[in-house]
Structures are given as C-alpha cells and as structure tokens.
Amino acid sequence: MTEAILLVGGKGTRLRPLTVNTPKPMVPAAGVPFLTHQLARARAAGVEHIVLATSYLAEVFEPHFGDGSALGLSLEYVTEEEPLGTGGAIRNVASRLHSGPDDPVLIFNGDILTGLDIGALVATHSSSGADVSLHLTRVEDPRAFGLVPTDETGRVTAFLEKPQTPEEIVTDQINAGAYVFRRSVIDRIPAGRPVSVERETFPELLSSGAHLQGMVDSTYWLDLGTPQAFVRGSADLVLGRAPSPAVPGRCGDRLVLPTARVAPDAKLTGGTVVGADAVVGEGARITGSTLLAGAVVEPGAVITDSLIGAGARIGARTVLTGAVVGDGAHVGADNELREGVRVWCDATLPPATVRFSSDQ
User: Fold this and answer.
1) pTM recorded for the entire structure
2) Alpha-carbon span 26 to 8, nearest angstrom
3) Tens digits of residue pLDDT in 81-93
C-alpha cells in the first residue's frame, strides 16, 4: 500500500473573496469541492490511506469527508496550531503514517489540478532508488516558478528560485508540487518550526548528497492559486480536458447539478457549472463560468469566465467578464464588471453602476 499526505492548510489569500468562508481545497470545482478530485484520483491510483495536513478553517474538512470510506479511503486529519510551511506540515503529520523507513509516501499540494500519472511517479521513485522523487512539468515562461534542472538520467542537479534574467533560465522544468518521499527522509525534517521543502529541505538534501529524482510528466497541469485559474480549472474538468473520476456527470459544455433551475432559452457553454439550487433566468448567456450553490442569475445577464459565489445574485442584463463575486453579494441590474474585478462577500452594487478594474 502507498499512503499519502495532502497539504491543505493554506489560506488561499490570492483567491479571496472565494476563500473568506471556505478553505481553498473546499471551493467547488466542477460541482464538488476541489479536494474531492484529488482524493478520487489518488484512490484510483491505489492509495488507501491519506493524512490531510490542515490549518486554515480546518474544522470544515472532517464533517464533509469523514473517515473517507465513501471514497474508498481511510482519512485522518492533523491541524497545525501555527503555520509550519510545506516541510513543517509534512513533518507535523509523520506520526500518523503507517509506512516503514524505506517505504514511499506520496505528497500532494492541495491547489494543483493535474493529470499526473501517479503510478508512474511511484514506479520512477522505486526503480531509481531515490530518497525523494519530484513531479516536474515544463512551462513556456518559468520566471514565476522554481526551476529544477536534471541530468540525462533524470537526477536533480539544482533548485533555482524564480529566475529573472535569460542567463538564469537554464531549463523549462519546474517543480509541479507532487512528490514521493522515502519515509525516513520525512523523519529528518526539523519538527516544531516552519520549514519550506522548496527552499530548505530539497536544497539541503541535495547538498548532503541525497538522491533526488525528477520525473517530467507533460500531461495537464494548472496551479489554481488565482480566481482566473480556478475558474479555468473547473471548466477544464467539465470539458474533459483535465481528468477526474469525481466529476458528477458527463463531460461536456456544461454541468448542471440536479437541483438547479435553468431557463429553457438560457445558453450555457465552455464548461459552465451551475451549482445546487442555483437559478439561471431567461435569455442569460454564461460561458466558462461557475455558479456556486444558491446563486441567482437574472434574465438577460451575460457572464464570461467568472465565478459567482454561494447565494450571490447577478441582476438582469448585467455583464461580467473575468469577475469574481463573493458569497451572498448582490450585483444590481445593468452593471458591467470587467477583468479582475472582485466583489466582496455580502456586498451590494446598486443598479446601473459601471466598475472597471484598477489597471484599466
């Protein structure tokens, strides 16, 4: 059995207002909490025991997933009293692992949507004899990421943080946020203090002569850290571009949950999701967007690449493009909200008010 640690303690600051009331991994993507997709993919790869490393709004995870039996998993929960970083969070849950010193332990970040072949990563780890194996992916512009160059055998040779000059960009391979650790390596991480695996653990292991193996996997990969990325990821799940056994319905242009109500002449395209008890009025056009539970879109509204929070209301004929509307907010009729606008939870915008993003 391979077991796993899921790091789900982040505050999701870049996703606000979506994360004011809900931790990032619990924000719905394609009709279910995003974490459900990660758990389901891990189970499909043969993982049976997962420890969730929680912190922000930790109390919401266990009531939803319980002991994990509904997903065919055994789940445990460990809450950080103070933020410990990625390495500190991994070390903090080590006592809940069942693995022996040389056994592999999978580790996932709770905000990455990926089509990673989990079994292949574990097999690479085993066949290479590595202490840690990293999922690597290639990106066109690596300046916002940590670079991970490897030699001809896939062995990691360096960790380079966010290069800015052309000379510093020695590879397009980046750390994709999924790892396999030899259990004994986890026990070597300092306990009781913040530790970053990216900035501290991995470079120190490399300098000490440990074997770190990279596996480049070029399947779907998306960091869901921003509202725009989260909306895109949800749409890609619905469209079938991103794989998940947890999508509650067939892949296609739209996903309408059973208790939602959509007017017959409303048009939903581009992987749009209409959540439980949400309402879409006559003549509305919604493309590549997500409506969370209980949201209301009034007649004639046009919504593109946007996310509408739980219980929010969008007025008649209002146009949203690349916007985020928080839970319980009310955007009045005939507004136009353009790229980057965020409406806070429970806020009210009166009718016929035009809002522009700060960079326009």
Assistant:
1) 0.88
2) 9
3) 888 888 999 999 9
